[in-house]
Amino acid sequence: MCLAVPGKILSISGDDPVLRAGRVSFGGVVKEVNFAFTPEATVGDYVMVHVGFALSTVDEKEALQIFDYLRQMEELAELESEPAK
Amino acid sequence: MKFIDEYRDPAAARQLAQLIAQTITRPWTLMEVCGGQTHAIVKFGIDELLPKKLRLVHGPGCPVCVTPLELVDKAIQIASRPGVIFCSFGDMLRVPGSGRDLLFVKAQGGDVRIVYSPLDAVQIARDNPSSEVVFFAVGFETTAPANAMAVFRAEREGVSNFSMLVSHVLVPPAMEAILSSPSNLVNGFLAAGHVCAIMGTEEYEPIAKKYNVPIVVTGFEPLDIMQGVLMCVQQLEQGRAQVENQYSRAVRANGNESAREIIRQVFRIIPRKWRGVGRIDQSGFALTEKYAAFDAEERFGVSEYQAEESSECISGLILQGLKLPHECPAFGSRCTPEHPLGATMVSNEGACAAYYRYRKND
User: How far is A30 from B213, CA to CA, in rounded Å?
Assistant: First the structure.
């Protein structure tokens, strides 16, 4: 029910902040989405979409944190497994 | 798809499983709050990757499940009236009331329509000015701004034949109800990521402090859930009880300001009854006075009454993390998604329905 799917903004139109809407691509499937709650979103951004509304813009830098963390853990494990000199 | 596929990488999942196994020294019970997370855990077999010391129990975060029988009956009453177009998200249609469900009403000739967005229901109202169009507004904080916007637009644009049957519930009061129960087993929470995308993380701080329980705001993909579990176990092992945000790509500390603003305008907080759990104070939304004219319960005068639940159903214990679905004697035999006895079997996201779909042969 609280499912929100990430999609890429293809277009935005409308001056009224409540009616601001546009097209979002979900891996090629394009849907009309309302941007009333994401005034900062621009074309090319990824947004999390729930029941026709963009709820949040995806922070691309934060999206990498889990992979950075796992890489660090891997490096740490390698260091620990090296024989002491 | 970007921001989905990479969070399903099996090698990274194994690495996280290993980190969890290296961190845990004692038995812990964690609860994921959201039904979407429950569904992902069972679908991807995440619980089976975790050490035996760690028990995952499934929380009350399935709005379809916790919508009380009385409200489903009211929906059926309203939808059965001539001249009404009744709109709903698809998953409410096959939830049985005391007798029938909304699909039955549709089969009998009622005008029951599945919509993708509450704005679609407002459009149906504009297109059918001689009909009464009712939207069944079920959901948590995630769905509240969209439903609030539908009412806001209907009022602003004078779409007076639109109304809403509101069944909105809130996550933090339910978490507190679970934690304050003397039989509580939950040591840590994975909080619902998309609820927090709207509301932010601040309202969880007092809960973490009062009950000395770690709360990790967590996403919905397998790697999100496993990292959420790892962060929660790290806190428990280190004796910390803080609010942390695993899902930082979508959740900001203060949530979504413009969404919260429209919620404040359109909804007020009231006590609500949760199916399987009972009444919880300050745990739901109703329309504010300004928008009271759009309240379908008022408009159609549907009466208050008590509906009887099956006495065999243990969904209340499941929703509070005290039992797992397969511990119920009725599971998979007298209770199935086609003939559910109670809350957790009625929706795809309910814990019993997820176990039935992915685990019934285990």
Answer: 42
